[in-house]
Amino acid sequence: MTQEKDLKGYWKKNLQYLSVLLSIWFTVSYGFGILLAPWLNNFKMGGFKLGFWFAQQGSIYVFVVLIFIYVFLMNRLDKKFGVNEEDA
Amino acid sequence: MDVQMWTYILVGITFALYIGIAIWSRAGSTSEFYIAEGAVNPLTNGMATAADWMSAASFLSMAGLISFMGYDGTVYLMGWTGGYVLLALLLAPYLRKFGKFTVPDFIGDRYYSNTARTVAVICALIVSFTYVAGQMRGVGLVFSKFLEVDIFWGVIIGMAIVFFYAVLGGMKGITYTQVAQYCVLIFAFMVPAFFISMQLTGSPIPQIGFGSTVTDGSGMYLLDKLDQLHTELGFAEYTSGTKSMQDVFFITVALMVGTAGLPHVIVRFFTVPKVKDARISVGYALIFIAILYTTAPAIAVFARTNLIETVSEQPYEEMPPWFSTWEETALLNWVDKNEDGIINYAPGAAIVGAPDIIRDGLDIRRGANNQVMLSNEVTANNNELYVDRDIMVLANPEIAGLPAWVAALVAAGGLAAALSTAAGLLLVISTSVSHDLIKKQFNKDISDKAELRYARIAAAVAVVVAGYFGINPPGFVAQVVAIAFGLAAASFFPAIILGIFYKKMNKQGALAGMIAGLIFTLAYIIYFKIAFPELNIPENWWFGISPEGIGTFGMLINLVVALSVRSFYPDPPEDVQEMVEGIRYPR
Q: Considering the domain boundaries, does residue A3 fall inside one?
């Protein structure tokens, strides 16, 4: 396999990760926190109405988790395609 | 010891700390001054980014704002955190790989055009100056409230401190001071939150506390109780809010995208050694930010409940001592419309405009119940209480009856938040001038030493200008924070994203897009916020989008214009396309 082809594969995989993670990002914040919030507010978790919780708490936790998942996936991908900086 | 004494001690200790760090970390080269030589540990950078990002507004005003907005406060909570996902996934790693000093650097090189660079510099300067004036004002306010120093001298002291470590240490000095400032501000924010959460709900963790039951034995959930209080007084339910859904959506997008496009935030990720570090560093930053941002909505609920329970339908004479303290500063006032001596709290403004205390000579004029008298015209509704939203965080420790040192800690925390953000912004201003204008455009052969000298002079001038605006804020400063985010969203963000992800984007497209987004957004905000503020009501907005949310629309315009103009002009030169290819891979 040529170097060129390798890099194309790396970028394609990166874009795949991005689209999946950003879809989750959108669904949780804009979906659960805003668009579906009035409906989710019919359900409760402890003292929180669910839509309200996603808007003011849940979405922020999910943001943090998403970044760390991306870091993990990309570090693995960097190694797999041999573009990680340690080997430089 | 009283609050003032404690404040002097705590503020004195923290300022000495900042100065000590500044002396220890002086910058010797432009690389040290601009990006701390790109040698900052990712965890350290995460913490510095958190302090850089969390301003006087996040620390002092946000919880209070949310407290009055209820669910609508979501726009700030999600808007000012969600952008970090975009930063980590779409911007930081690639810009780190690009490996230069500033955002205009990237725009200028990527679009092979000094015009593009200049447009980017102008955006960076407008965004940063708007923002920094607010920080200086915050410094002045804390000084005047807690230390009874004039706002003028408060701002001067703040300027002197920032001047010292930003001009001397550049990015290196700023980074390590910001780490210290983060520790101060987060400690100061959390301590009262723990205490109050414990008092109200029996749970020390505020994030859990505000979803728990209240300790008064009723077994009711705190949020249900607050919703009930709101409904009884005629307010909308706290957990539902009053803004339209599309406006909440657009404001949140504008704030998120704006955050990801703010030059003083982006530039922090130029300071770590590797691409990998840039990614994880954003993650650390968001953890540190999330600690404050998930606590703020809890504080908002606690403060709101405490306020309503303490004042609503209670006789003025039974108010605790803090009530009269804040009355005298014209931040919390009561007008006895029906002359029954009882405080009625209801929706709507109690008085016309901001409170104006009547004085007879030096003495404050008192009413029948010994309340502070105002010269303002009263409104026709039955609300009798004026509450400035900013006091919710400042007065919270007193309202909850916490010891004096906790209130003093809040003052030190507010200063840390304002100074750390101001320093980051001043650095952007100074690098824009010394690097993007002088080095890249006017005097390409300038020596490193001379460039460093210009950077310091630019920083010094910027401190003075920021201080001037802090002392004499243009009347509209509070309203134009929207400009900073709107402009970042409508100009930088699309240009950078297209620059990384669309290799064939050329300079004509990018420039046309940036200028279209910029002009549209500026025009809309100026029209509603400055030129015709009386027209600023939902009926007049386009598609029901407020000026705060219009940056989202500006961003879409930028994208559409950029993509259509691009197709009429040739692709970018080979070497630029290769550069774009290059930043996509860590090695």
A: no
Structure tokens of B77? 């909570």
Domain that includes residue A56, residue range:
9-80
- For the residues of B180-198, what is the DSSP string, one character each? HHHHHHHHHHHHHHHHHHH
ipTM, 2 decimals?
A: 0.94
How many domains does chain B contain in total? 2
Who among A11, A64, A85 is closest to B275 (CB)? A85
The pTM of this model reads 0.91
Task: Supply B147's token pair.
Answer: 């230390």
Do B344 and B216 share a structural domain? no
- Token look-up 């004479």 returns B317
- For residue A78, which residues of chain B lie inside 8 Å, CB to CB? 276, 586-587
Q: Which residue has the higher pLDDT, B129 or B148?
A: B129
Residue B545 CB partners (closer than 8 Å, separation 6+): B246, B247, B250, B552, B553
Tally the residues of chain A: 88
- The whole domain housing B172 covers 3-307+403-583
Which of B345, B361, B387 is where one domain is finished?
B387
Q: Which of the residue ranges B19-23, B247-251, B477-481 has the most confident prediction, judged by mean pLDDT? A: B247-251
Range ranked top by mean pLDDT from B173-187, B319-333, B466-480: B173-187
* C-alpha atoms less than 13 angstroms from C-alpha of B6 in its C-beta half-sphere: 13
Query: Is A38 contained in some domain?
Result: yes
B585–A7: do the CB atoms touch at under 8 Å? yes
pLDDT tens for residues B106-133?
999 999 999 999 988 988 888 888 888 7
Q: In this structure, how many other beta carbons lie within 10 angstroms of the beta carbon of residue B504? A: 13
Q: Which positions 17-76 of A are in contact with B (Cβ < 8 Å)?
A: 18, 21-22, 25, 29-30, 33-35, 37-38, 41, 45-49, 52-53, 55-57, 59-61, 63-64, 66-68, 70-71, 74-75
Q: Is residue A86 part of a domain?
A: no
Q: A1 lies in a domain?
A: no
Residues of B in contact with A75 (CB under 8 A): 276
